[in-house]
Each structure stands twice: as structure tokens, then as C-alpha cells.
């Protein structure tokens, strides 16, 4: 008797949370620093009046998928259709659905650590065995060793996050090619998580084709200023989209989210401008961090991973919180001892962060 026991294999799975503190400057979860354009909100509110509340939403989210395909093909050498796209409640739901479809119980996935903790977490919750391959100390990948590990461990799914969260590193095209070839050789699926793809140069979208075992996941949470919406998508071969469609719950994507996503895509130009502005702010932040004298790693995303000089990440994190600046404390994460991750914010927020950091580090050297 007593409370029902959770699955044995869940007892070791840790949750994934970033503290939601009430501070002035929030640079901890890589969101866009500003809301979507006001015209987006106006248009959305207008079309939302037309929702048939008593009816289930468009089951396959066809109009939204068609628009995503259009926008992702715009100005590119590749051309996708709605049949290459699957949308869900955040790219986390996309990732979970992919793992349920292609991995799940009795199969294994491979992650290149340190990386986005949700890849391993979601896989474990889905019952998959997780193999972790360590990146080098500078967080680059030893491609030959990674390929060898794929050949030997024969994972059903290989996760590659590029630009990688939390390190910021972008993978080179030959690396992605090599990992894809190795994954295909063992009949697996390569999932390239491009939550930060728009901030980077190369996109694995260029590799997506019917005869390639690769899908790319993207999200409205970072670039599209719409983390509140919970909307993400994958672009992949049509056979992968059809397979995942059998796994997602019926009507999983509500009518308002579908509408908001479709309207947001009309503001593509504004989003590209914002991405460009954030990239130039990132470069300013990187230069200022170098000036302050922290260790940092190259970033192709909208955040920067750094380690304060004395390596006391916890104390520096708290010092920043005391000055109403919240960054991500990664210092207790494997391989990231003493590290903090700061999201690129507005110029004012970045200045507030840099000022607070200088203060905290100044006072810590005075000790
Ligand atoms: C933020 C993030 C996501 C986005 O998840 P959503 O569920 O779309 O909000 C996915 N992957 C990585 C690596 C991220 O950092």
C-alpha cells in the first residue's frame, strides 16, 4: 500500500529548470529581449476573433506548415513544402515526438556533451538509453572519434546542437556531413537542433533531402520573440514528417498557436533585422568581456558562455543577482565548472550586465 511508485528508470532522471527570479535584467534563458512588433500583436488579435471555439483546430496545421516551408525556403537554394514540416508546442515537443518515433524504449541515442540537457532528459523520459560522447576541453568535437563512436554504439538517434547550447559553438559543415554519413551508415537519424540557427552562418537545412537521414529543428522561442507561444518545428524528409505525425497526439497544436505562428511569419523582415542587431550586440559583449578579462568561448548564438577569472561561478552569479541581473548559472553542470551563460539582451541590458559584472569582479579581487 502507499503512493504509486514512479517508473524505476525515472528515479535517476533530474528535472530541468532555470530559476524564475524577479529581477530587472533577465539574461538567463536566451529569449529575445523585446516583444514581437506591435503590428504582429494587432493582426493576431484581429484574426483570433475568427477562431471557431467550439471546433477542434486544423488537425495537421497545414496553413502554418506551408508558411514555415515558404519562409524557410525564401532566398535559399533549397525549396521545402508543407510536407517537409511538422509543427508542435515548442521544439521540445518536436524533439520528444522524434525520440518517441525513432528511439524510445530498447533503443539508444547519442549526445555530444556538454550540450542542451533536454536532449538526454527527453530521451531518458522516453525510455531510451543515452550515450554521452565528450567534446574536447574547448568544446569542439573530435570528429573521427565521434564517427567511430557512432559506428560502434549504433544509436537510433544522434543529437547535434549547432550552435551548441550552452557553449555557443557552431559546427563546421564538414563535421555535420561526417556525422550524418556515419549516422546513415548505422541506419540512424541525425537531429540537428538549430534553436539558434538564425544567429549562425551554416544551416543543416542545406542537407535535408528525401534520401538523407537528417531533420533540423527550429523554434519561435528565440528568434521570433515568442517564447510565450510554445511553437517549434522540424524540417525534414517527408517520410520522417509522416512517421512523427503518427506519434503526436491528435489536435496537439491549438488554433491560437497556429494562427499566431502564421501571422508571425509575415514579420520575417523585422525578425531578420533583430537577429542582425543581436549578432552585433553579441560582438560588442564579447569584446567587453575580453576587456574585463573573463575566459569565454566563441558563440554563433544569442548568448555567451564565460568563466570568471577566479572560477567562482556561484559567487559571481549571486553578485549579479544582488545587482538585479540574472544569468544562467552553469557552474555545477558537468564539464562547466565555474561557468556562467549570459543571453544577449538590449544594449541597455547588456550595459547593466557588464557594469554589474565589473563591480562584482572588482569587489572579489579586493577581498
Ligand atoms: C531554447 C532551446 C530550445 C527551444 O525549446 P522550445 O521548446 O522551442 O522553447 C530547443 N533547443 C535548444 C538547444 C534550446 O536552447
Q: Can you offer a commentary on this structure?
A:
- The chain is of the alpha/beta class.
- It has two domains: 8-36 and 269-366, Aspartate Aminotransferase, domain 1, CATH 3.90.1150; 48-267, 3-Layer(aba) Sandwich (Aspartate Aminotransferase, domain 2).
- Helix content is 39%, strand content 15%.
- The protein has helices at 38-48, 62-73, 90-102, 117-125, 143-153, 173-185, 238-245, 255-264, 268-292, 313-322, 347-366; strands spanning 25-27, 85-88, 108-113, 129-134, 157-161, 189-193, 214-219, 232-235, 295-296, 303-307, 325-329, 340-343.
- The protein has a seven-stranded mixed β-sheet with strand order 2-8-7-6-5-3-4, with helices on both faces. The protein has a five-stranded mixed β-sheet with strand order 1-11-12-10-9.
- The longest helix has 25 residues, at 268-292.
- The model has no long low-confidence stretch (mean pLDDT 95).
- Bound molecules: pyridoxal-5'-phosphate.
- Pyridoxal-5'-phosphate is lined by residues 30, 90-92, 116, 161, 165, 193, 195, 219, 221-222, 227, 232.
Strand order of the largest sheet: 2-8-7-6-5-3-4
Bound compounds, please?
Answer: pyridoxal-5'-phosphate
Shape summary: globular
CATH architecture of the largest domain: 3-Layer(aba) Sandwich
CATH superfamily of the largest domain: Type I PLP-dependent aspartate aminotransferase-like (Major domain)
* Strand composition percent: 5-15%
Strands, total number: 12
| Count of structural domains | 2
Largest sheet: 7 strands, mixed
Share of helical residues: 25-40%
SSE order, as H and E? EHHEHEHEHEHEEEHHHEEHEEH
DSSP helical segment count = 11
At CATH level 3, the topology of the largest domain is: Aspartate Aminotransferase, domain 2
